[in-house]
Structures are given as structure tokens and as C-alpha cells.
Design brief:
145 residues, nine-stranded antiparallel beta sheet, 2 helices, DUF538, alpha+beta, At5g01610-like
Amino acid sequence: MGSEMILKFRENADIFQGEELCKKKSNEMLEEMLLPNNLLPLEEFEEVGINREIGFFWLKLKKVQKYKFPKLGDTIYATEISGYIEPRRLKELKGVTAKELFLTFTVVEIYIDDPSSGKINFKTATGLSRKHPISSFELPKPVKK
């Protein structure tokens, strides 16, 4: 389904290729939408695209990736991740799976309802949701000299 959506919205999108540029643009996209800068801690990018007109985005990776957020558990990222982005929210997300204990959950939405709470919400395809500290998904900002 993600590939079909990418083809559908590709025409009017800003598209970036190359490891460093893709990493930079994916982080900028998150920060621009007031989301934590390490929410998608990915490597080995092939492409990043965003159709700003409708808020659709995608990330293409060279291989499936697994990342362990400290104190939270494993997250698995497919070779294609897509969804809609708006301030403080990723929705209709495809390609992100969270593992907790022996269970695996497809993450379909990530959002911050109240920034002052310091919490970010993760909603699964089954309707379950979980809150975590926003700080768990942020990298320190580089100090400008």
C-alpha cells in the first residue's frame, strides 16, 4: 500500500536522495512539525520524499532496520515507511513496528497532544496506545559556536 501512495503523491513532492541529505531532511521534517528529532533513528537511506501540499511523506531504506530505544524496547522499520505528517502528529503510518516483551504491534499513529505533558503517544493498529517521555526520542542539539 505504501508504494502505491508514494507513486500517487510523488509528482508534487520534494524528493531527496543520498545518505547524508536524506538523514538531514528527515530530521528537519520532524523538527519542522514539532516532533522529536530521533523519532526515526534511521541509517542507509535511499530516498526521502514529502508532498507538502497534502502532508504525505515517505522514507525508503536499503534494508529493514531495528533500533532499541533505551528503557522502551525495540522498534523495527521496514524498507519503506510512509504516512501523513502535520504539526505534532504522524498518522496513517506504514512500516513501523514496536516490540514489547513477546508481542509485536504495528504503529499507525504517533502524536503529542499536550507538549507541556512531556509525553508522546503511540497508537497501534489494534487501537491500543502507549505514552512515553518525549525526551526518550530526542538527541541533544549541537551547540553552535
